[in-house]
Design goal:
The structure is a homodimer.
Chain A (H helix, E strand, L loop, with lengths): L11 H8 L3 H9 L5 H14 L5 H8 L4 E7 L2 H6 L1 H16 L3 E7 L2 H11 L6 E5 L6 H9 L3 E4 L11 E4 L1 H14 L5 E6 L4 H14 L8 E4 L4 H14 L5 E4 L2 H13 L9 E3 L5 H5 L6 E2 L3 H16 L8 E4 L3 E2 L5
Parallel strand pairs in A: 1-2, 1-3, 3-4, 4-5, 5-11, 6-7, 6-8, 8-9
Antiparallel strand pairs in A: 10-12
Chain A binds a DNA duplex (30 and 30 nucleotides) through helix 2 and helix 4.
GO molecular function, one term (chains A, B): DNA binding
Organism (chains A, B): Actinoplanes sandaracinus
Keywords (chains A, B): DNA-binding, Transcription, Transcription regulation
Chain lengths: ~350, ~350
DNA sequence: TACGGATGTGTGAACGTGCACACAGTAGGA
DNA sequence: TCCTACTGTGTGCACGTTCACACATCCGTA
């Protein structure tokens, strides 16, 4: 089968001609307005006959509206795969946008090259707004969105985020503090933390909450710093911690995946959990119930974060005023067996 | 900050006026052509001055080219979260498209409503082609793409896929057969399978390969049928199998996640692996090395699948002829500890 | 009889871009 | 001198849509 032209598709003109009407009437059938029942029937028949589909590019050009919202997944390789939240957040956002008849298009940013292309894409009129997840400090995408005045919502917010850009997130400081306090309440004395992603608000805030809970007992030496929220980082971080303080009896892992890695290391080292060491995670992801023992952790409402962010963007699109620029969702503690 | 209009953005006209040139010359600066060095300098200065970004919608309308390719992730909720392949496939595709200066936009299909909207989006001129992953039998998306003659590539192919639509995949039948034969070679006699996703080519083919390897020894009763490739399905499937045949000594799980679930159930049931029961998986995902014992499995070249599919679409876009419509990537057996 | 409103339909102009074409000037070769 | 080729620039049109406007008809009422 040869494919010389990309197949001439019918336009409003063709439909109008086939139905014996004018373009205006076809447009009215599509967008609402006064149309007689016969005219509507004829046009609808012609449309399904010729297989008409409106051309979004033309519509977007004329209307300055594409009915699409970008979901910018600004994640390095390993994170994207090992972070279960990102998937849930996407699905939550997709569902909310879908309900409002908007298309979610997700853009993956891996390299500097990607950043530039995504920036071009965002400003090219293909999307009406953007949801940005886990942007980093000094992320160029932030500037682009700010310059463009593109309706946007950030999920989590880097410390240098422009005050006017709305965000939704969770109270990382408070949640980290609460779960650390739980660890204290079970009688643990030498509590360490495997802190990750300290170039992001979430990582920084979880560490801050941990520090706050421990107060004067806080010991810099008991913080292992790992780059990512993944399993491998957990294994490594726990080895570090055991080496520095063999008498450690409590661990706050910055994510469930990290906690899972930590459990594995503790098992190899012959420590029992929660007998010798209490371990808590963060996320309440599938990791939490898959571990042995199951993890005590902080529930992160990933799906709600996604749909909330979508709502924020949609509200801006409708021209509504946003009262509080930021919004924090609550994060219940989930008590299971690991601490 | 009030936001009455979506902020008037500069157009070629504005740039032309600012630089004292005509629109045509601006266009030539952007797209190549004869332009004097002074003119180019003046125009480039004006562009960076006014912060000009070409309007993709207008360009797409005129050129019938958007420089974007859709990645249709046709996955139900649980699958999307638990299938590690989809992420790797996406990253592979993204990298390849990025290199060719194309934007990947990924569309999530969850519901029938989504299907319809995605179909509209695909035919709306926002994308030049599509990569479709794990479409199901009778998927309406297939018809849409076929009707539109949209350059596309399927990853895996449903049995009812139009002969002309290119696909890339792996030899599920051969790989399943090979790993089952490995199980046989270790002396297992009562081998069961936890089969999943039997509404998809991958699920069907893996079962077929299993059956082929066993030949006359194949026993219908030793196949547990579960809906998804996830951990929970593995737990359930293994319970089924143990109940039906307590003397079972080998299990082929249709995915690593399923194998992980099966391991958990076996552990609970007091069976040792690989002592009492040999277990093999499929995918060589992060699950495989995270299990105890680590899984013997089939390596699935997820990233290559993604980049291959992208290449196929790009080649169609360039008007090249595709010799073999289908393409199968090789899948080495990875021998670890579980069988 | 005339008028205002509701209902229904057609037409022209724009959205921002790229391309074909026209035009102008210079240079080289027959 | 004329023709052609090359470089550089401006202008009109089209892509497919929507929207504002003009027009046409019919009804009820002043």
């Amino acid at each position: 089968m040869s494919r010389p032209q990309p197949q001439k598709r019918p336009t409003v003109h063709d439909i109008a001609a086939a139905a014996g009407m004018s373009r205006g009437t076809v447009s009215r059938v599509l967008n609402g307005g006064y149309v007689s029942t016969e005219a509507r029937a004829a046009i609808e028949a012609a449309m399904s006959d010729l297989g008409y589909v409106p051309n979004n590019a033309a519509r977007a050009l004329k209307m300055r509206r594409s009915q699409a919202v970008a979901f910018v997944a600004h994640e390095p390789h390993s994170l994207f795969l090992d972070d279960p939240n990102i998937g849930s957040i996407m699905l939550g956002a997709n569902a909310a946008l879908s309900l409002a008849d908007h298309q979610m298009v997700s853009l993956v940013v891996e390299s500097a090259r990607d950043t530039e292309r995504v920036a071009r894409y965002l400003s090219g009129g293909f999307v009406d707004g953007a949801i940005v997840v886990s942007a980093r400090t000094k992320d160029p995408i932030i500037r682009v969105i700010s310059d463009l005045a593109l309706p946007a919502a950030f999920i989590g917010h880097p410390p240098d985020l422009d005050q006017n850009i709305p965000f939704v997130g969770i109270d990382n400081v408070g949640s980290a503090r609460a779960i650390t306090e739980h660890l204290l309440s079970t009688g643990r004395r030498r509590i360490g933390m495997i802190a990750a992603a300290l170039d992001r608000d979430s990582g920084i805030d979880r560490l801050a909450g941990f520090r706050a809970a421990l107060g004067s007992v806080f010991d810099e030496d008991l913080v292992a710093d790992v780059p990512h929220y993944d399993y491998g980082s957990g294994v490594k971080g726990m080895r570090d911690l055991l080496e520095r303080e063999p008498a450690i009896d409590g661990v706050f892992a910055a994510s469930d995946a990290i906690a899972a890695g930590a459990l594995e290391t503790l098992r190899e080292a012959g420590r029992s959990v929660p007998g010798d060491v209490g371990v808590v995670g963060f996320d309440d992801s599938t990791w939490a119930v898959r571990c042995q023992p199951q993890l005590t952790t902080v529930h992160q409402p990933a799906k709600e974060l996604g749909s909330c962010a979508a709502q924020v963007v949609l509200r801006q699109l409708r021209g509504e005023h946003l009262d509080p620029v930021g919004q924090l969702l609550s994060t219940p503690l989930i008590l299971r067996d690991s601490a």
